[in-house]
Amino acid sequence: MPPISSTGIDLAAGSAAEARTVGSNEVTQAGYAKVAVESGEAPYGTAVFSFKQSGVTVSEAGVPASPPTTRARLFIDYRSGVTGLGDAGTVDIDTGIAIVNYSSATANITYTLRNVKGTRIAGGRGTLAAGAHFAKFIDQLKEVAPGFNLPPDFPTGTGFGSLEISSDQPVSVVALRETLNQRHDPLVTTTPIADLTQSVTADPIYFPSLSTAGGTRRHWFCSTRPTSSKRERFRSSTIAAPLWRSIKSAERRIRRSSIQSLSAASSASRRTDSGIGQDRVGTVDA
After folding, report:
1. pLDDT by residue (tens digit) across 10-42?
2. Comparing C-alpha atoms, which of 275, 283, 278 is closest to residue 256?
């Protein structure tokens, strides 16, 4: 598929550069970007999604370049009428995915949706032509994968799960979690993709940033492969000080710890409180 537009960038050793879309108010267009190296080593790359309304930036999210894979897994959060703090009203949360097929052959892709216990609750197959791309929310996936019937009560009952993507051609995948707040502003964040073709270890995983109180909240997710299980201990280490002061503090102590067993293909989530009070910051490991 030929590019709609292209631009050349010269990068000296150790330098950086940027390119951006026009961002006009015309009809929304969707696609993908590819960085082709004419000489030298491939650079590191990050894309930033930005959404504006009436000239005001409402939401932004950054995502690194997505290496092609034939097996990927991502966490799904699709809930409606989620209660906010106090009497602030409700919000709706959805997860969207985008896939591009870089190869020269049509990709046959299988999608498997599981609940947090690892039980398969939906599945479907679709094709993606060479050089083609699509972007859909989880409740729209049936448009590209006939037979993928999302349970009607998923947004009001199930809420969380995982989606496994298998392809006979390498594809690149990115996921975004969108929250429509009480003003119906779309707030987005990137959801990292687990590459199931990579080997795994039993080493702890770390979430370097945690904050609670002051109206802030951290929500983190873990899931296992379809052929493995793990006993997770979520342990948080917090510092009782505002963020800007915590860098100077040497105090570090375990504030909370919990254990949860994850069976094969299952998922789990944890979140901090978001009450109003003294800020606390720290780390989480699992």
Report:
1. 888 888 888 777 766 667 777 788 878 888 888
2. 283
